[in-house]
């Protein structure tokens, strides 16, 4: 027995379809796909009677119409002229049946009556007799809109947080066919700021279905992740892996959306690896890294290793804070003649010494993120690869009522004053950690009166160095929080928001930092003195001394990660590229407010140690001789 | 003789839009007696049929010619090609090279936009 749906249900699905296809208009193809995708709709049932599955017909329409381009040429999602005609016909059909609201059957009949659209042509190609199916649809008498039951949201005793109204609404919409959903746990997740929840949907007969992980993030981030999943992840996953099998839930009225990571069946209880890894022995950890993580996902990901020569900024500029934040100027303001103009291709030297208040003109930057609440947008220039653009610039003070910006759109020209530079932002982050030293100096104080090079002042030169390295598909955020274990100790990865082709070592350097931060967690002493001692003890890794006993398991774990990283080097035992990755990822962690103060302090020192290693082994342009001096051989030099 | 044709857009954001062309006012006549007539299609404004909402359409993409009492479709070395429907395979359209005859009512594709030409006589 079919069920009737009202116009709102159909439009929501149709608009989502249009966005996924990058069409950004509402056409008959989107309406028709929505009609066949509604579970229990008359369209779906009548096609099934003809022996045609909903997925097949939707795929056939998509194939015939083709995907749109990545650029949006207009705002909003306008109706096509044909859609207006069809909705008009549907409206007449509704009046004829003396109803006041449109149902899915009216739209289905109207599309069949119009006769000329691509979906009808596809049906004809599939040998559907249009007159016959129309007569059948006409004969259906069910006009009652199904009352959708209210999905209740329960919380397990472990879950102590509260969820806001929007999140609850999203969960109800995403699990609308269930009786209730139980929120089991909140997962750590990576550094994207998205929320990850472990939930169990429960059917009307109180039978609990398999648990799954949902991610709640801003709408455009959800769409972007779906695209990355289709491009890089789908088809490269081992049999046991978390997949995005369902389409994302993206209600029109909200600025957040929901993704479901479906887990292999019978996963049982899920644990985040961060919670258990400290209870393992070092042999267990190295076996897990080698046999489970690396060998399971490596074949299609890190083992690709195509030769790749790049300048550090191409891969790592995007992990640092924005190059600068601009206060937008109205369109009619003319910048002075000597204003800094940034357009493709940007000379790197052109970016040095940007001053507070200076006029900057941006040309042909791509919109990466729109934040209506903060009145700001994030832009990047079309360099680096598509997934990981360099030259991030934030623009604030935007009046969205006058000027709307869309993710993926190219902004031809935008003028603003520099409000904050990257250096200012990093220095501000340093000040927030109440340093007992001057963070603007070239050196940081270290143990026994020695010093380490300061990453906060050295990173610009490091961005310009060239690396001989390799390119692979990478996860892009391989934090412990994104790795789950099921009952049978199988490894599952989630969160593909940063998956891309990139520097192979990126993931392993990320994992190393995540291990250090999770492991030390609240065990770290707060004072700078304590931090320096811990950094010194951890640097035993490179000194081959005997480690401090309490840190020995962590050190062994880090060296297991590094053993795997070493397999991914372009050249045997060339640690340079790994340390470059570490310096930038440490700076990201250092500036990240989600991390504790002690951990952020340690990240600065861990980055300094990596930088020290780089300087010892390679002379860099722009570094002074004292930077390169090896303090451990001759501490009196400094 | 004043010949009139309609071109119906069959896909994209302009799906369902109808454009009417008359030989006296639109396109180019190369012979005074009205035996030849050309309608240009492309993304640039100066085309007779301007498809500026499809980024897969070249600035000057294709031409329709009325010659020897029938219609011909010509691809102007466009980047993404001009296609006609394949009678043998619904999903794999036939790419058009040079000039080919075009039947009225037959669908053809310029970039990502499907079009159909109908005579109004």
Outline of this structure?
The complex is a heterodimer of chains A (638) and B (121). Chain A is α+β, with helices and mostly antiparallel strands and 638 residues long.
Number of helices of chain B: 0
**C-alpha geometry of chain A:** globular
Q: Structural class per helix/strand content of chain B?
A: mainly beta
The oligomerization state is: heterodimer
Give the overall pLDDT of chain B as a whole number: 87
Strand order of the largest sheet of chain B: 2-1-11-10-7-8
Using only C-alpha atoms, the radius of gyration of chain A works out to 28 Å
The portion of residues assigned to helices of chain A is: 25-40%
* Strand tally of chain A: 19
Q: Which spans of chain A of ≥5 residues are poorly predicted at pLDDT below 50?
A: 624-638
How many angstroms does the end-to-end distance of chain B come to?
A: 11 Å
Biggest sheet strand line-up of chain A = 1-2-3-4-5
Rg result of chain B: 14 Å
Draw up the topology in text.
The complex is a heterodimer of chains A (638) and B (121).
Chain A: H1 7-20, H2 28-37, H3 42-49, H4 54-65, H5 81-96, H6 104-114, H7 118-125, H8 130-139, E1 152-155, H9 165-174, E2 180-187, E3 195-202, E4 212-218, H10 219-233, E5 256-261, E6 271-272, H11 273-276, H12 282-298, E7 306-311, H13 312-316, E8 324-328, E9 340-342, E10 359-371, E11 376-381, E12 393-396, E13 410-421, H14 422-432, E14 443-445, E15 451-453, H15 455-463, E16 466-474, E17 483-485, E18 491-493, E19 500-503, H16 506-520, H17 528-538, H18 540-543, H19 552-567, H20 576-590, H21 597-617, H22 625-628
Parallel strand pairs in A: 1-2, 8-12, 9-10
Antiparallel strand pairs in A: 2-3, 3-4, 4-5, 6-17, 7-16, 8-13, 10-11, 10-13, 11-12, 14-15, 16-19, 17-18
Helix pairs in contact in A: 1-2, 2-4, 2-6, 4-7, 5-6, 6-8, 12-19, 15-20, 16-19, 16-20, 17-21, 20-21
Chain B: E1 4-9, E2 18-22, E3 37-42, E4 49-50, E5 62-67, E6 70-75, E7 82-84, E8 94-95, E9 99-102, E10 107-110, E11 113-119
Parallel strand pairs in B: 3-4
Antiparallel strand pairs in B: 1-2, 1-11, 3-5, 5-6, 6-9, 7-8, 7-10, 10-11
């Amino acid at each position: 027995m079919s069920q009737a749906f009202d116009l709102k249900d159909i439009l929501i699905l149709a608009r989502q379809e249009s966005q996924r296809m990058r069409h950004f208009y509402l056409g008959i193809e989107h309406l028709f796909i929505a009609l066949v995708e509604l579970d229990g709709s008359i369209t779906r049932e009548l096609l099934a009677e003809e022996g045609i599955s909903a997925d097949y017909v939707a795929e056939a329409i998509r194939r015939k119409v083709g995907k749109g381009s990545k650029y949006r040429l207009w705002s909003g999602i306008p109706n096509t002229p044909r859609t207006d005609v069809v909705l008009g016909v549907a409206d007449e059909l509704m009046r004829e049946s003396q109803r006041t609201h449109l149902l899915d059957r009216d739209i289905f009949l109207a599309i069949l009556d119009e006769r000329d659209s691509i979906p009808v042509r596809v049906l004809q190609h599939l040998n559907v007799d249009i007159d016959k199916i129309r007569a059948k649809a006409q004969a259906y008498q069910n006009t009652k809109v199904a009352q959708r039951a209210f999905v209740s949201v329960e919380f397990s005793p472990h879950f102590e947080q509260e969820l806001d109204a929007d999140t609850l609404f999203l969960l109800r919409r995403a699990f609308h066919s269930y009786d209730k959903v139980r929120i089991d746990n909140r997962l750590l997740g990576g550094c994207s700021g998205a929320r990850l929840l472990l939930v169990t949907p429960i059917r009307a007969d109180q039978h609990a279905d398999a648990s799954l992980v949902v991610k709640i993030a801003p709408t455009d981030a959800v769409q972007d992740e779906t695209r990355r999943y289709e491009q890089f992840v789908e088809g490269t996953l081992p049999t046991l892996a978390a997949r995005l099998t369902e389409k994302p839930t993206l209600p029109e009225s909200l600025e957040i959306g929901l993704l479901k990571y479906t887990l292999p069946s019978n996963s049982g209880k899920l644990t985040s690896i961060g919670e258990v890894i400290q209870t393992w022995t070092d042999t267990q950890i190295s076996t897990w890294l080698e046999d489970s993580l690396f060998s399971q996902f490596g074949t299609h990901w890190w083992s690709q290793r195509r030769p790749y020569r790049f300048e550090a900024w191409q891969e790592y500029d995007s992990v640092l804070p924005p190059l600068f934040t601009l206060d937008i100027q109205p369109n009619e303001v003319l910048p002075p003649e000597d204003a800094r103009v940034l357009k493709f291709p940007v000379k790197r030297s052109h970016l040095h010494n940007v001053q507070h208040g200076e006029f900057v003109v941006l040309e042909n930057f791509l919109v990466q993120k729109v934040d209506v609440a903060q009145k700001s947008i994030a832009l990047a220039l079309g360099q680096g690869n598509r997934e990981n653009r360099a030259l991030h610039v934030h623009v604030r003070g935007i009046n969205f009522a006058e000027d709307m910006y869309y993710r993926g759109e190219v902004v031809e020209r935008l003028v603003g004053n520099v409000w904050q530079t990257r250096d200012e932002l990093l220095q501000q982050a340093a000040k927030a950690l109440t340093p007992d030293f001057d963070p603007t100096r070239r050196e940081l104080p270290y143990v026994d009166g020695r010093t380490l090079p300061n990453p906060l002042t050295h990173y610009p030169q490091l961005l310009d160095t060239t690396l001989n390295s390799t390119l692979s598909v990478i996860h892009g955020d391989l934090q412990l929080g994104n790795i789950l274990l099921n009952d049978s100790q199988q490894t599952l990865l989630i969160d593909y928001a940063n998956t891309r082709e990139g520097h192979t070592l990126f993931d392993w350097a990320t994992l190393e930092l995540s291990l250090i931060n999770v492991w030390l967690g609240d065990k770290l002493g707060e004072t700078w003195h304590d931090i320096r001692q811990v950094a010194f003890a951890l640097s035993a890794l490179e000194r081959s001394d005997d480690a401090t006993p309490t840190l020995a398991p962590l050190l062994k774990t880090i060296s297991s990660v590094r053993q795997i990283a070493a397999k991914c080097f372009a050249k045997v035992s060339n640690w340079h590229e790994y340390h470059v990755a570490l310096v930038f990822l440490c700076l990201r962690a250092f500036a990240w407010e989600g991390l504790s103060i002690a951990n952020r302090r340690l990240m600065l020192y861990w980055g300094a140690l990596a930088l020290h290693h780089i300087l010892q082994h390679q002379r860099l342009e722009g570094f002074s001789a004292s930077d390169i001096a090896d303090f451990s051989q001759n501490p009196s030099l400094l | 003789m004043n010949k009139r044709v309609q071109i119906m857009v069959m896909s994209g954001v302009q799906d369902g839009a109808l454009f009417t062309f008359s030989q006296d006012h639109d396109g180019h006549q190369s012979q005074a007696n009205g035996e030849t007539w050309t309608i240009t299609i492309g993304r640039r404004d100066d085309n007779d049929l301007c498809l500026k909402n499809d980024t897969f359409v070249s600035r000057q993409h294709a031409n329709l010619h009325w010659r020897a009492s029938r219609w011909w479709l010509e691809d102007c070395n466009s980047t993404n090609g001009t296609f006609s429907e394949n009678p043998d395979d619904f999903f794999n359209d036939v790419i058009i090279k040079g000039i080919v005859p075009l039947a009225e009512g037959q669908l053809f594709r310029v970039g990502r936009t499907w079009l159909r030409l109908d005579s109004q006589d």
